[in-house]
Amino acid sequence: PRPRTHHIGDLVLYESHSILHGRPFALQGRFMANVFIHFEPIGPLDGPELVDGELPPYVLPGSEEERNWRKRNPLGHKIMKTQQFETGSTEAHRSAMEGNLEHLKNAVEANEEVVNAQDKNGWTPLHESIRSGKGEVVKFLIEKGANVNARTQGGRGGSVLWWALEEHGEEHEIIDVLNEFGAKNIPPGAEL
């Protein structure tokens, strides 16, 4: 690729690993500045969580920034439980999303009310099961009492069937399962 010449007022954003770099303000005169924004995950990750080390992953050991960072953070790199982002998701949400029927059955067996548990966005395990693409997971949840017409966003978002159509299209097995149980295609914002 050819090098690009940037002009006054250009906005440049690019990502490298967990860092978003940008120049959100117009350049003026002979001066130039870059803004580096670092994002750290504060919720659960898919895999080992590396949030309790000596330094955050974006600080280079032995650098000037390490000395500055240690002055500002004498206790090291720790995220306290009170600072963690709580999504409201349950093990049933995660198992349904992953299509793991065995784990989902265990979660529902431990607490049957979990089939209609909503996370902070109003997603139930049935909504999450759409992502898995597995009809047997969807069918299991409905047979255990999941609301086939549950809507996200406090009842203002899309229904389970609407999300399934968005994700998979009309020819997917999940659509057949939902239709078999009388699911309605309700788009976000629709009044009933």
Anisotropy-based shape: extended
Query: Taking all residues together, what is the mean pLDDT?
Result: 79
The proportion of strand residues reads: 5-15%
- The helix content, as a percent range, equals 25-40%
CATH homology superfamily of the domain at 91-180:
Ankyrin repeat-containing domain
Number of strands: 3
SSE series: EEEHHHHHHHH
Widest sheet: strand ordering: 1-2-3
Major sheet characteristics: 3 strands, antiparallel
- CATH topology of the domain at 91-180, by name, is Serine Threonine Protein Phosphatase 5, Tetratricopeptide repeat
If you compute it from the alpha carbons, what radius of gyration comes out, rounded to the nearest whole angstrom?
A: 23 Å
By CATH reckoning, the class of the domain at 91-180 would read: Mainly Alpha
Q: Give unreliable regions as ranges.
A: 47-52, 80-85
Indicate the structural class.
mainly alpha
Return the CATH architecture of the domain at 91-180: Alpha Horseshoe
Distance between the termini: 53 Å
Number of helices: 8
